[in-house]
Design brief:
The protein has 697 residues and is α/β, with parallel strands linked by helices. It has three domains: 37-178, 2-Layer Sandwich (Chitobiase, domain 2); 184-514, TIM Barrel; 555-695, Jelly Rolls. It is 22% helix and 27% strand. It is built from 14 helices and 36 strands. The strands form eight sheets. The protein has an eight-stranded parallel β-barrel with strand order 10-11-14-17-18-19-20-22. The protein has a seven-stranded mixed beta sheet with strand order 1-9-7-8-4-2-3, with helices on one face. A hairpin with a 4-residue loop joins strand 27 and strand 28 (609-612). The radius of gyration is 26 Å and the shape is globular. The protein starts with 14 loop residues before the first helix and ends with a strand. It comes from Lentinus brumalis. One of its GO terms (molecular function) is beta-N-acetylhexosaminidase activity. The active site is at 347 (proton donor). Residues 1-25 form the signal peptide.
């Protein structure tokens, strides 16, 4: 769906001129990530509503997801890109369409003889070729996943033209080939400290896929960290500190006590549905159950497993500890379709290095034997002189040089994923001392490597080139950027997390697919900045921007007159917006009920309190019960505030209060989607008058 573009992302409207400067039909427009190679020829392939999508019969059911399943998703996405055009059903054919056919055809096929290489020389099944003639657009890969990425290229080229004002879409004739530089191109979301429902996670996969990101690493168990609660003789505060495990065991399971917040956990069916959505968009879900550190939720369930004096650490020498961890994996391994899982294994006591290494190696062997899956761990300092972590385990580097030195790991035969915090860490809403940015730092990603070069997965240090490696390093698998939620549920809404991820995913997609200064076709920062807003608005299959079509101008709806209850049919509206209304509460109970509700938020009468994902944020204003009060709510992606009785000199902001490591409290602004679905609910007996919702703050 081509939606409303947030003008704050554009800087100026001149991007449209930039996008259409080349004569269409000569070259491909810059897109995200960039295409490795394209040689134009004469003519164009014109996309029309009569276009048909054809899948070669003998390959249609190959793979999981199959080529036909990917084609079905592509068809839906293309309808979305073309503003809900109704395309013909997918056809199966054993013949490549004739280029002289009068019906424009997109043909999806496989060629097992095709071979694509990562930068390190390893084979990949994610590459694709495409050939464009006046009436046929052919996408071929060695496997269905490569064809899927080819459909993302097709959709972006169409979206860029439509976003530039084109009434018809034309693709330049020619031949192209494309494949990723690295195998692992992912993002990690801390879902252990912040609850997210699976529909949101599925939407993140769909959005990430548009930029050819192929993994979502779910950090699914953890706890808030507050030393005053966790440590010290006789300290019992750890028993009540927030900790969570997100996979919900079946009723009656011996693991019931592991999930203290069942309303903040995923049932098996919910998880499988989300995982299938991700897989159908080329994204593997990599689940993480973090042990033996970050294990407070396990120790709250079974205190006897805890390391003395460290309630968030497991005592690995206690007889029942490792069998308990194995029982957890026994229950949930069958849920997971990816060939790898993460056991976390970071920030454990370095004095217990041998116990740690023995545990990690034993879990690697156990998980491999019982599921055929390999494991990943976070890079962790384990200064043993007698033992070493198995080289079957991938090390996800994050802390240079405190926990590991990746060039040394790779030289010693370990496979490494780059999650270096200097480049690739985010924290929800804020970070201690401003250590991490709100979104991946564009300056760092485009020019923050040594010598002013751009970042790529082979770059670990911004200052020391000897601690970086070449793009073709054989043991470098790729990179994952991480968004942590150190301050818990109340710090952010899910959509605020998306706002932090959105541009980050796009630039990360370019840098992990193409790298920096590797291919002549790689994007410049100017090109990225120009095209990103168009693609963010056009990304199909989800509506994380909460875009709606205005009734007229920028007006979503307006309801003059008085109402006690009304359903508008509009579930939610993303910022920027202004919601204005007058309200007179029920004189008998002036705090009762909900004024407005939607799929992402509610606004309660009491203290004008916003609710999002079960968290409450009070404005602290009490509505008078004997008269009408005029309220204007103004929201951007950075804040939400109210003007009461048109008092522009005294805006009132909705805030959250965050506990930063138990050291100090930090105030943060909140951004809420408009609760646009329902007026009046939950016992509201007052009157709402003259409601108006517009797309401006």
């Amino acid at each position: 769906m081509l939606g409303r573009i947030d003008m704050t992302l554009l800087g100026s409207i001149s991007f449209l001129a930039f996008l259409v400067l080349p004569v269409w039909g000569a070259v491909l427009e810059p897109q995200i990530p960039s295409v490795a190679f394209f040689a134009p020829s004469s003519g164009t392939f014109k996309l029309s509503p009569s276009v048909r999508i054809v899948v070669e019969t003998k390959y249609a059911k190959l793979g999981s997801p199959s080529l036909l399943e990917y084609a079905s998703t592509f068809r839906t996405d293309l309808e979305d890109t073309l503003s809900n055009a109704a395309l013909a059903p997918i056809e199966l054919s054993s013949a490549v369409p004739d280029s002289l056919s009068s019906i424009p055809t997109i043909y999806l096929s496989l060629d097992p003889s095709l071979e694509y290489k990562l930068y390190n020389g390893r084979s990949t099944d994610e590459g694709y070729d495409f050939q464009v003639s006046p009436n046929a657009y052919l996408i071929k890969g060695s496997a269905p996943l490569g064809v899927w990425w080819g459909t993302r290229t097709f959709l972006q080229q169409a979206a860029i033209q439509l976003g530039g004002g084109a009434e018809t879409v034309s693709f330049p004739a020619g031949k192209g080939s494309d494949s990723p530089g690295w195998e692992v191109r992912g993002f990690m979301l801390d879902a252990g400290r912040h609850w997210f429902d699976t529909s949101f996670l599925g939407d993140l996969c769909i959005y990430a896929s548009y930029f050819k990101i192929n993994e979502m690493h779910l950090h699914a168990s953890d706890n808030l960290w507050n030393p005053a609660f966790l440590y010290g003789d006789g300290n019992e505060g750890w028993k009540n500190l927030y900790a969570a495990f997100r996979f919900q065991p079946p009723a009656g399971s011996a693991l019931d006590g592991l999930v203290p917040r069942r309303n903040e956990s995923w049932t098996k069916q919910e998880f499988l549905d989300m995982q299938r959505t991700c897989a159908n968009h080329g994204v593997a879900v990599i689940p993480e159950v973090d042990t033996p550190g970050h294990s407070l939720v396990i120790n709250q369930w079974k205190p006897e497993l805890m390391e003395t004096g460290a309630p968030d650490h497991l005592n690995l020498s206690y007889p029942d500890t490792i069998p308990t961890i194995k029982s957890i994996w026994d229950e949930f391994l069958p849920w997971f379709s990816a060939p790898e899982v993460s056991i976390g294994a970071d920030e454990y006591d370095a004095a217990l290095a041998n116990d740690y290494i023995s545990f990690v190696n034993e879990m690697s062997s156990y998980i491999s034997t019982n599921s055929g899956k390999s494991i990943r761990i976070w890079g962790t300092n384990e200064p043993s002189t007698t033992m070493s972590v198995s080289k079957d385990i991938t090390i996800q580097h994050w802390d240079f040089p405190g926990d590991d030195i990746p060039v040394q790991l790779m030289a010693n035969g370990y496979r490494v994923i780059n999650s270096e915090q200097a480049f690739l860490y985010l924290d929800g809403k804020t970070s201690d001392g401003g250590q991490f940015p709100q979104e991946l730092d564009q300056d760092l990603l485009w020019s923050g490597a040594p010598g002013g070069k751009g970042w790529a997965p082979n770059v670990f240090s911004p200052t020391d080139p000897t601690n970086n490696t070449s793009v073709d390093a054989p043991n470098l698998r790729g990179a994952i950027f991480a968004l942590w939620n150190d301050w818990g549920n109340n710090a952010t809404t899910a959509l605020e997390v998306y706002y932090q991820l959105a541009r980050s995913m796009a630039v990360f997609g370019e840098k992990t697919w193409a790298g920096s200064d590797v291919r002549p076709s790689g994007l410049t920062r100017v090109q990225f900045d120009a095209v990103y807003p168009v693609l963010n608005a056009a990304a199909p299959g989800q509506n994380l921007n909460r875009v709606v079509k205005p009734k007229h101008g920028n007006v979503v709806y307006e309801y003059p007159g008085t109402y006690r209850s009304l359903n508008t049919g509009i579930p939610s509206v993303g910022p920027p917006y202004t919601l204005s209304f007058k309200v007179k509460p029920d004189s008998r109970d002036s705090n009762a009920g909900t004024l407005f509700s939607g799929t992402d938020s509610k606004l309660h009468v009491a203290n004008l309190t916003f609710e999002a994902a079960g968290q409450s944020y009070a404005l602290g204003y009490v509505l008078p019960k004997d008269r009408y009060t005029s309220v204007e709510i103004h929201a951007t992606r950075e804040y939400t505030y109210a003007l009461i009785d048109a008092d522009k000199g005294s805006p009132r902001y909705w805030h959250t209060l965050m506990d930063i490591w138990g050291e100090y409290m930090a105030l943060g602004n909140m951004s809420f989607a408009a609760p646009s679905w329902q007026f009046g609910a939950d016992g509201f007996a007052g009157v709402i008058e003259d409601v108006r919702l517009t797309l401006e703050a």
